[in-house]
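Project standup — Tuesday

K.O.: blocked on the structure for the chain from last sprint. Re-posting the sequence here as requested.
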Amino acid sequence: MNLHRLLLERTRKSGPIKVGVIGAGKFASMFLTQALQVPGLHVVGVADLSPDRARAALARTGWPPERYAATSFAEAVRTGGTHVTDSADDLIDVPGLEVVLEITGDPIAGTHHAVRAIDAGRHVVMVNVEADCLVGPVLAERARRAGVVHTMAYGDQPALICELVDWCRTVGFDVVAAGKGTKYLPEYTSSTPDTVWDHYGFTAEQLASGDYNPRMFNSFLDGTKSAIEMAAVANGTGLQPQDEGLLFPPVGADDLATALRPAELGGSLTRRGTVEVVSSLQRDGSAVDLDLRWGVYVTFEARTDYAVQCFAEYGVRTDPTGRYGALYRPYHMIGLELGVSIASAVLRGEPTGTPDAFRGDVVAIAKRDLKAGEVLDGEGGFMVHGKLVPAHASLAAGALPIGLAHGCRLARDVPAGATLSWSDADLDESVLAVQLRRELQGS
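H.V.: unblocked you, prediction finished:
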């Protein structure tokens, strides 16, 4: 029985799934757009530090004002409306709430919200891949012990990539690489919130809409977000990051099977069974043909000669040997697809991707010479960018994860291009995210 039918049956028997949304940025707005269209979902509350921003997001995405006019959670539950609040904790504690969507993008706040939700018996959809990258395996294990689902967000690239990897293994192919596309050039690693719009080409009207956060988009551009997402994929699939991290080769959809092979076969990979992000730009800045900027992919190898024969018979685009193929999805829709994760968690008890081990990490790299006493500004900022590394390499180096490189004071100078270490930063050990990260590392 498919999810849509299960959702209709659930609604008929016991009412809609009760959902709480934490965060009111662009991704939350995308979910809210669809929440009115999906039968069987009741958004009980939206929590944001700025309730006015949350109300603006609801209005912008087509919600009639009366739908979010409830003056309390009790009224929202009774009437089917939505209450807007500045307290995520109060939202999590609403009796009968079933699912919490964590969409703040803040790894510190997201860790707190996830733990609170899990301990309250709520399923957690982590649109906050930053928190998942930092402490996801610990959160997932905590959820398993509590009997709830901790899941990646369907529609965001990590969950879609995990789905492709699962498909590949289920049908009996060997996964060679999996990942996504993005717009990338090496010089973007030094981009800052002051320069980010020069690279994107958004209009003044778009930027004035309120949905465009320069730090968030700068994280996309400087490679940090890609590294975070690929760490999440590695931690959820068993794929291992390359020792060099992400290489961002310029590759179009038709060339995936040839380019995303091991280097000894003429491809770009330094390891098979890995994650990689392909660029939509050639290194000279020109566009890649049939680029996968918005898409996700998996490359795979046939195990038998008969499968190779089938590839040829059914027009599968392969590498020159005929043994390596690729499957891709040309785009993802972020929050518009979140209903799949909600329904899967509640109705099947299944995540749409979840971390099960610590295989990939994202470490903080200095964008410029940093001085003792400066306060780090974190992901998407002026001071550091994130690089994907195997978890064992991060632990061996004592590297500072990008998720903790915000709001802490530097204890010593760090030169441009250097990896920051735990000892470089004055961290607050009372912060839950720091404690859970210590637990993940066994330190």
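K.O.: great, moving the ticket to review. The CA atoms of residues 105 and 128 lie 5 Å apart. Residues 129-146 form the longest helix (18 residues).
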